[in-house]
Write a structure and sequence with these properties.
Elements: E1 8-12, H1 20-31, E2 38-42, H2 44-53, H3 58-67, E3 75-79, E4 82-85, H4 87-96, E5 109-115, E6 121-124, H5 129-136, E7 146-148, E8 151-155, H6 157-160, H7 164-170, E9 174-181, H8 192-212, E10 217-222, H9 235-250, H10 253-258, H11 260-272, H12 279-282, H13 290-293
Parallel strand pairs: 1-2, 1-9, 2-5, 9-10
Antiparallel strand pairs: 3-4, 5-6, 5-8, 7-8
Helix pairs in contact: 1-3, 1-9, 4-5
Amino acid sequence: MSIFKAKIGLALGGGAAKGIAHVGVLKALRDKGVEVDFVAGTSAGAIAASLYAFRLDLETIDQLARRLTFSKVTNFKLAKTGFFSTDSLKKLILEQIGPVNIEDASIPLAIVTTDIKTGEVVTFTRGPLADAVCASTAIPGIYIPVNIEGRLLVDGGLLQNVPIQALTQMGADFTIASHIHSVNSRSEPSHALDIIRNAFEIAINQHTRNQLRTANLLIAMDLSDFSLRDNTERYDELFLIGYESASRQLNKLSWYRKNKIFLYSARVLNQLLPFKVPEVLKRPVSSTNSSSNSGTPLSTEDI
């Protein structure tokens, strides 16, 4: 990787049917002229990341997202380990992208899952795309785990709901995180599945908050008022929240672009000279306020 070209990584987090907001984020990236070098996704974010990484045009992604509901990507299949299978989601991925491998993506892609037996993060950058996406979306207790190479895999959100770490492992210098979350409350549960999903969100909230501090640019959206199962009737609202939230935050990239020369110089010094370069010069983004210097990602949203 050239020290004179910073690589940008995009992490798309989990959020079930609220993942529609990611489509708005992708549109904002295009309108702002931000080129992404790496993309990683968890759960609903894994679906959006896959479509984006394989260069489906945003109009196609938009039309597809407008039709997606819980019933469209779920099959009832009672088993000892869950109530539903991800067979319909696998079929959808195969129809839209094909029987491709992750390494075939136009943009390097990572799909994050959790090994439900060992409690380990399992990140896929190679192998069948459809299987990895299905595993990443398999909410434990609801969906049957996906067996890949002898490992029982479930939703990556258990350990990395917004997969920033996957981006840095791939080589990203600058990370953008799209975080779909609820600040003070979750959507009103009207179904047992809502109860389980709300409990899932509550359980992962704290470690997700800690992980988000490592992002260089945070796009955080409070979607407490939206459903986890079906938001097709409120598609335009969710899309607009994603688009406007991303647009506001992406404006901050102007500082980064204007000050590239200083950042490049810091990388050169760090690689060529025997002394330590100050941390403030190493970080891709800085700010005049104290929160940036403490490592807090750039965001105007309450996380």
